[in-house]
Amino acid sequence: MNYETTMSATLNGEIMQDNRDRNQRRVRIATIIVAILIIAGAAYYFFGSGSTAPVDADKAGQAQTVTVVAPGRDSVVRAINATGTLAARREIPVGVVGEGGRVLQVYVDAGDWVTQGEVLVSVDRSVQTQQAAALEAQIGVARADLQLAQNELDRAAQLVERGFVSKADVDRKTATRDAARARVSVANAQLAETRARNARLDVRAPVSGYVLERNVETGQTVSAGSGILFRIAKDGQLELQAKLSEDDLAQIAVGIPASVTPVGVDRVFEGNIWQISPMIDAQSRQGLARVALPFDKALRPGGFASVEIKSGAMTAPVLPESAVQTGREGSFVYIVGKNNKVQQRLVKLGPVTANGLIIEEGLDGSERVVLYAGGFLNPDETINPKLLKKQ
User: Fold this and answer.
1) Are 354 and 363 in contact (CB under 8 A)?
2) Maximum mean pLDDT: which of 14-23, 69-78, 206-215
3) How far apart are CA 111 and CA 108, in angstroms?
4) Where does residue 195 fall: left (phi above 0), alpha (psi -120 to 50 degrees), or beta otherwise?
């Protein structure tokens, strides 16, 4: 009896445990089914065709507040900013114009002022001096021959009347006298040529101005093939050769003022445009605007400088740089349209002013333009605009 009772109790316990396990599995299955139904219902609620209105209403209620501004139209001075190279307005290269020779002395150096005709370099002329002396002696001989021929002609002219000398003899003596006179003229011309050549041995300044470069030393042998010995800025006049685009060149004219700031110098030099390039470089699509500058030792030809050219006043919208974005198609801004939806508007930018960027095309000034956070917006996105009044 005890054995049977024990076996019965054990069997009943296993049955009860099996029932508990089965109930737990049912509970887990039911829980999973309920979770799936909840997820499906939520998905239908948010993405179903019949429930878009509540979602849009919720998005409209959560639209971000964005600061906008109506730029209006301001009268601004159009300024063109560019860079360029400082140079002499008229740079004169100086070389050997004579036959050359050994340099005896160099009288000027780079950075000196010279006057037109001033001797820059003296060249040895010992041989040429002897040649000139020989020509002077030849002139003396020619003049003596001329005098002798003239005397003989005068005597023959007196005797021909008495019949002692024939008319033919007088003609021959006249020809001899004329030949002697011609030889004197030739000798004088040869002497003048030699003296002119000797004068050209010295290298002289062709113009007055500022010496930019010196490439000759005492003792050096120079000739016509020696190259450039000096470079002179005529009258010390300097300029900035500014490179401008075709659009900018069309906005300027001769006489417009410009402010030049050389690299490494804190000063600003005032000048004006004196020449505009008639041609555009085919590769860079740029042309030169040459700004005349007064002489100053702080302006070093060959140096780099920036320039601001004031090309006149214009009326246009002006926006801070924060309002302008850049995309594949160019620069654009976001404007607030109907129902407070943002729209993208392409714009053409002008030069930068102290108040911001000039908008040459794309806006008339009456639009509401997103001032900040444009990079975080998308076209047709609904926002809550907050208008900022311009000062």
Assistant:
1) no
2) 206-215
3) 9
4) alpha
Instruction: Report the 3 state secondary structure along 237-258.
Output: CEEEEEEEEHHHHCCCCCCCEE
Rounded to an integer, the average pLDDT of 241-254 is: 89
Q: Which of 310, 239, 249 lies closest to 281, judged by CA?
A: 249
Best-predicted range by mean pLDDT among 48-62, 162-176, 268-282? 268-282
Specify the length of the chain in residues.
391
Instruction: Work out the burial of residue 242: count CB atoms within 10 Å of its CB; fewer than 13 is exposed, 13-18 middle, 19 or more buried.
Output: buried
pTM of the model: 0.56
Question: E-strand spans in 223-363?
Answer: 230-234, 238-245, 257-262, 269-276, 286-293, 304-316, 318-319, 325-327, 330-336, 342-346, 348-353, 356-361
Round to whole Å and give the CA distance between 108 and 115. Answer: 11
pLDDT digits (tens, 9 = 90+) for 292-337: 999 998 899 999 999 988 876 678 888 888 888 888 888 898 888 8
Helix, coil or strand: residue 217: coil
From edge to edge, which strands make up the β-sheet containing 113-114? Answer: 91-94, 230-234, 209-214, 113-114
Classify residue 377 by burial, with Cβ atoms within 10 Å: 0-12, 13-18, 19+.
middle
The per-residue pLDDT for range 28-82, each reduced to its tens digit, is 776 777 667 666 655 554 444 444 434 444 444 567 888 888 888 877 777 788 9
- The alpha-carbon radius of gyration of the chain (Å, integer) is 50
pLDDT at 47: 46
165, burial (CB in 10 Å: exposed 0-12, middle 13-18, buried 19+): middle
Of 102, 114, 101, 92, the closest CA to residue 230 belongs to 92
H-assigned helices in 210-357? 246-249
pLDDT level of residue 131 (50, 70, 90 thresholds)? confident
Nearest one of 235, 236, 270 to 256, comparing CA atoms:
270
DSSP state of 389: P
CA atoms within 13 A on the CB side of 147: 6
Beta bridge partners of 103: 123
